[in-house]
Automatic annotation (TrEMBL):
It comes from the Bacteria. It comes from Streptomyces zaomyceticus. PANTHER family: CYTOCHROME P450 YJIB-RELATED, P450, PUTATIVE (EUROFUNG)-RELATED. Belongs to the cytochrome P450 family. This is Cytochrome P450. InterPro entries: Cyt_P450_B (IPR002397), Cyt_P450_sf (IPR036396).
Length: 409
């Protein structure tokens, strides 16, 4: 075991907002590839920052389990601990299912998502994107985050999952209220949970060409309540990172000369900007987590049975052992760990759905508002104060006002 003379790093504070890359570099310098950290309330955990070590952890779901019951800190965790909803205990969704049951469950989700016709997905993403642009194009200025990125993915996902068009706006509000975690959060969660059960009841009676019906037609023995839980995860875990992928990519295109060409008409650099964001500014920075099922060693550290390991996806992406070029354009290389790795990674069809929604959202915005420009100096753009999901609080822009297309009218 390598003993570090540096104290554990608090996994909070303004540096996660301002310059996380430099912060991870310093943590790696002081502690190595696996660093002791403390969460809210001085709760200890390990942050896995090394690319190789993260690969090792995510490739061995038996030793590094997704089962939060293994945690050796439960006795010290108060009932109102703010990270409790994220760490999760006795939650019946796929996120905390392990072993063969997890493989079956992931298969139910992947097969249902694979059934989405890519042309239908793109057509719906375009239609909802056009509808959102219609609501703001005549104004000449808007906040891309609140008025566009945070409204699009959930609307498209709700539609392909099987919800009726008129339920879309209510689901958008409920999910964003739940994510914001303030007033209306519990009501939002309640509305979503009830909507999932109602959707599954309706689709059981009359199946359609949608994700909910496909999951019901292939439940692998999971109950309707469990399927409802997973649909909830697929909506919540899908929406926010896809919204951040749109926001972070547009920020890059509006602030970095290397991507400015796309703003004057070319589309090819949209994909490059999105790829660059996954390497340098990925939406899911850190993930909680995995629990060691026995005493072991990792990156020169002795890990105790039941210790919590946090997946440092953003830090691993910039690990100098794999990124001698860190800071330069990443081109078509997609060896990033931004979607996780191994059995519990983001399902491949989910990654494809997210990519289509994000890319279409960005392309429609650039087509409709071709002279879009930042309304504030780049240095004033602020991130949400979270070490977990990385995204902007606002992206204020200006553009020449244009009339609405009235696509849905
Ligand atoms: C259509 C949008 C999306 C859907 C439906 C979706 C769905 C899911 C689901 C169901 C899981 C759990 C897998 C399991 O436990 O076996 C998951 C995991 C994950 N997703 Fe996604 N996702 C979406 C978009 C994204 C995006 C845009 C990112 C980041 C760029 C992302 C990053 C992750 C990561 C890092 C994990 C793994 C967590 C872990 O290893 O514990 N997802 N996703």
């Amino acid at each position: 075991m390598t003993l570090s003379e540096h104290p554990p790093v608090p996994l909070s504070g303004p540096r996660f907002q301002t310059d996380p890359t430099e912060l991870y570099r310093q943590i790696r310098r002081d502690h190595g590839a696996v660093a002791p950290v403390v969460l809210d309330g001085d709760v200890p955990a390990w942050l896995v920052l090394g690319y190789r070590e993260l690969h090792q952890v995510t490739s061995d779901p038996t030793l590094f389990s997704r089962d939060s019951e293994l945690w050796n800190q439960w006795d010290a965790i108060p009932a109102d601990w703010p990270l409790l909803p994220m760490i999760g205990r006795k939650q019946p969704s796929i996120l905390y299912t392990v072993g063969e049951r997890h493989r079956e469950r992931a298969n139910v989700i992947s097969s249902a998502l694979e059934g989405i016709d890519p042309f239908v997905l793109k057509e719906r993403a375009e239609r909802f994107a056009d509808e959102l642009i219609d609501a703001l194009c005549a104004k000449g200025s808007c906040d891309i985050i609140a008025e566009y990125a945070m409204l699009l993915p959930v609307r498209v996902l709700a539609s392909v999952y099987g919800f009726a068009e008129e339920q879309g706006p209510g689901l958008v509000t409920a999910l964003n209220d739940m994510i914001n975690g303030q007033e209306g959060a519990l009501e939002g969660q309640q509305h979503l949970a009830e909507s999932m059960v109602a959707l599954l009841t309706a689709k059981a009676a009359e199946p359609g060409d949608d994700v909910a019906s496909r999951m019901l037609g292939n439940t692998a023995g999971f109950t309707v309540e469990e399927v409802a839980q997973d649909l909830m995860v697929m909506l919540a875990a899908g929406h926010q990172p896809t919204a951040d992928w749109i926001g972070n990519s547009l920020r890059l295109m509006l602030t970095d000369d290397r991507f400015a060409a796309s703003l004057s008409g070319g589309r090819h650099s949209v994909g490059e900007a999105m790829n660059e964001v996954l390497w340098e500014d990925t939406p899911t920075q850190n993930v909680a987590g995995r629990w060691a099922s026995r005493d072991t060693h990792l990156g020169g550290r002795r890990i105790g049975r039941g210790d919590l390991l946090l997946l440092g996806l953003a830090a691993a992406n910039s690990d100098p052992h794999v990124r001698a070029d860190a800071g330069r354009l990443t081109g078509g290389n997609n060896a990033y760990l931004s979607f996780g790795h191994g059995e519990h990674r983001c399902p491949f069809p989910a990654q494809e759905v997210a990519e289509t929604i994000a890319r279409t959202g960005i392309e429609v915005l650039l087509d409709r508002l071709p002279d879009v420009d930042l309304a504030v100096p780049a240095a004033e753009l602020a991130r949400r104060p979270s070490p977990w999901l990385r995204g902007l609080t606002a992206l204020p822009v200006t553009y020449t006002p244009t009339p609405a297309l009235g696509v849905l009218g």
